[in-house]
Design goal:
By secondary structure, the protein is an alpha/beta fold. It has helices spanning 5-9, 23-36, 48-54, 75-87, 99-104, 107-121, 138-150, 169-179, 194-203, 213-228, and strands at 12-16, 40-43, 62-66, 92-96, 126-130, 155-157, 184-188, 207-210. It has an eight-stranded parallel beta barrel with strand order 1-2-3-4-5-6-7-8, surrounded by seven helices. Helix 4 (75-87) packs parallel to helix 6, helix 6 crosses helix 7 (138-150) and helix 7 (138-150) packs across helix 8 (169-179). The radius of gyration is 17 Å and the shape is globular.
């Protein structure tokens, strides 16, 4: 699979979630995302207002993480966090599920957790549900995907990038098989180069999360340039 950089940029959430990130780091993230027309900038809730102001004349939306990175806060706290982020300008929310419920096979608890955030975010906000696939077996991944769909979420997402192995082709393929074409699938965690990004898209991802966006796009541009100058029949 070969995607030109403009197309690849349009499916990447340009991400900075380090707890030590400073205001100037967030402003640089926003400028970079605007320059390449990324799918969104993804930031911690404390930076949503800053990012929203920086991107007020841009088409790039702001995504906020909720319950990040462990998902171990009460659902009502996640809902309040989502509501505050939306008030600050977020139009996408990436929430972390309560993983113990997935491990225990408690779909009702998962649905309640996700529904609280979906309802707090409102009908015009995209909600992505982070499963932390590296910490779950296949049955738990399928259960969480089903709960996300039933709760009205728009995407399921592999990972926070802070726990376990991050995104894998196998997890993305399983999630896509579970949700069909009804939900988006976001691959995130450990996507640092073009080959990995394209492998995730080939496996069924429709959105990527990356902090190495510019490096990935540079590789993509170099690949396109090389392909354009290759003799016919050598690609």
């Amino acid at each position: 699979m070969t995607a030109p950089s403009a197309s690849l940029a349009s499916v990447i959430d340009h991400t900075l979630l380090a707890p030590t990130a400073l205001r100037e780091d967030i402003l640089r993230l926003c400028a970079e995302a605007d320059q390449v027309s990324a799918a969104s900038v993804c930031v911690n809730p404390i930076w949503v207002a800053t990012a929203s102001a920086a991107l007020q004349d841009s088409t790039v939306p702001v995504c906020a993480v909720v319950g990040f990175p462990f998902g171990s806060t009460p659902s009502e706290v996640k809902a309040a966090e989502a509501s505050a982020a939306v008030a600050d300008g977020a139009t996408e929310i990436d929430m972390v599920i309560h993983h113990a419920s997935a491990v225990a096979g408690d779909q009702a608890a998962l649905m309640a957790d996700i529904s609280a955030v979906v309802q707090a975010a409102g009908e015009n906000v995209v909600v992505k549900v982070i499963l932390e696939t590296g910490a779950l077996d296949d049955d738990a991944i399928v259960l969480a995907c089903q709960a996300a769909e039933a709760a009205g979420a728009h995407f399921v997402k592999t990972s926070t990038g802070f726990v376990g192995t991050g995104a894998t082709v196998e997890a993305v393929a399983l999630m896509r098989h579970t949700v069909g074409d009804r939900l988006g699938v976001k691959a995130s965690g450990g996507i640092r180069n073009r080959a990995t990004a394209l492998a995730m898209l080939d496996a069924g991802a429709t959105r990527l999360g990356a902090s190495s966006t510019l490096a990935i796009l540079e590789e993509d541009s170099e690949s396109d340039s090389s392909d354009a100058h290759s003799p016919k029949g050598t690609r």
